[in-house]
Each structure stands twice: as C-alpha cells, then as structure tokens.
Design goal:
Elements (H helix, E strand, L loop, with lengths): L2 E10 L4 E10 L2 E4 L8 E2 L2 H4 L3 H18 L1 H8 L3 H10 L3 E5 L1
Parallel strand pairs: 1-5
Antiparallel strand pairs: 1-2, 2-3, 2-4
Length: about 100
Amino acid sequence: MPVEIQAAYVKALDQSSFGYAITWRVDGEEKIENLDRETRMYFPIEVVGAAEEERVEAMRVGVKFDLRRSFENKRQWLGCSPEELTAAIDGWDGEVAVVN
C-alpha cells in the first residue's frame, strides 16, 4: 500500500510553537489531518525570527520529529505497515506551506 506525505501546512500558534496539518496519500486516496492546537511543535525563539527558508526547514524537521513521536497512532489511523510509514516520513522533503 503506497503511503506518502503530500504537503504540510504549518501555522504559528504563538511566539515559539506551531501547529500543523498534513495531507497524506494512501493507496491513491487523500487523508487530511487538520490543524490542531493539541499538535504543537516547539522551536527556539531565534527560529521564529529566522529567514523564511530556515523557518521552513526547521518546521519540516519538527514535523518529521512529531510524526516519529506519534508513530503508532499515525500508523493505525492510516492503516499502513510500520515499514510504509517509516519510508513515507524518511522520504519526505517536500512542500511546507506556512499559513496565518
């Protein structure tokens, strides 16, 4: 079953944290995680003030970290094998859109 991350949409929640939504594609079907204040990534203040390119890369790293942290929940929700989810997370270097 092919599993891939299509895009992540990141929203600043306050000066040092971000929430995110991810569009997944599982067997050709889109599954979207909503932006959620319960899903928070924390960054040092200097990242918030960094150049856009650095912020986007930091957010990508943060999203990957959070996906690994919530691996089993994500795997069950997507209905995929551990190997498929690992490959999707490790292989993702795609789009991160910052939303307001």
